[in-house]
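Quick question, first post here. What does this chain look like in 3D?
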Amino acid sequence: MTTLVTGATGFVGSHVARQLAASGHRVRVLVRRSSNLQALEGLAVESVEGDLGDLVSLGRAMRGVRRLFHVAADYRLWARNPEEIYATNVEGTRRLFDVASQAGVERIVYTSTVATIAVPNHGQALPNEETRANLAQMIGHYKRSKFLAELEAIKAAAAGTPIVIVNPTAPVGPGDWKPTPTGRIILDFLNGKMPAYVDTGLNVAAVEDVAAGHLLAAERGRIGERYILGARNMTLKQILDALGVITGRPAPHVRLPHAVALAAGYADEFLSRLIGREPQIPVEGVKMSRHRMFVASDKAERELGYKPGAVEPALAAAVRWYEERGYVAGRLGTKPVAQAA
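> Answer (accepted):
Ran it through. Tokens below.
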């Protein structure tokens, strides 16, 4: 049985591909000519060059495929041309579903995001898969594009395409080479670039657990259903304190008002446009931080058998991975995971 993975050169996608290969699947990955393949080093997979915008390459990649994991996404909180984000995340996803349906693929796992889940109002219960949002609640082009793409998945599933949707929270662990926005938080802490924090929160999960949740969704997920793949709700301060314990470095104690962070974001984006670089403080990210993205992943645990582990060992593994690969200035002397947990 051939299983196709899109986004296998990325953080979550590479872990999905590795777990599939370790489980005995024949894995095929769709990669662009410009893709950085370091996440696939040492992995026995078949690579097919293609792009979500190229129907011919998608048809070639889909030959003989019985299962598809569509993990690929344009995960940017800032883009000089936002239409690129929609072209990949919405149009590319719709195109891929059409090709997969025509090819008779038996099961598709679509990787959405927890960002499409509505944030709670004060005093409400934790959001879950039944907490519906609308497009107006989506902050920024990335969240809007993923919301629209998830609607495409729901519509295709209703029309008979065998799609299961997973909504990962904030994965952490080894292999986040780009890094993702969550990985950037860790890396900024390690390099002493986070003297203060904002009052926000995330649901954090080990990337290996998130990848395992994808495989469980393929086996046990119900067509057209959403499954949040998360673990522990943590404030940003709790994440930074945990990193402090792991590394022995002091966590910041100064809380930065959102208004100050937003002003810094606008100033950074203005400067970035002038000099042609990606902003270090994306305005969309600051706006998102006004809400604590705390959620419940009980449904995945109940229906899929999803069992996420502790977050601290995953944070420690991320720290070690960054340090060993030269992302961090100087040696940290990371404590053993058992002490960090």
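The domain at 2-173+204-231+294-309 is CATH 3.40.50.720 (Rossmann fold).
The CA atoms of residues 259 and 280 lie 17 Å apart.
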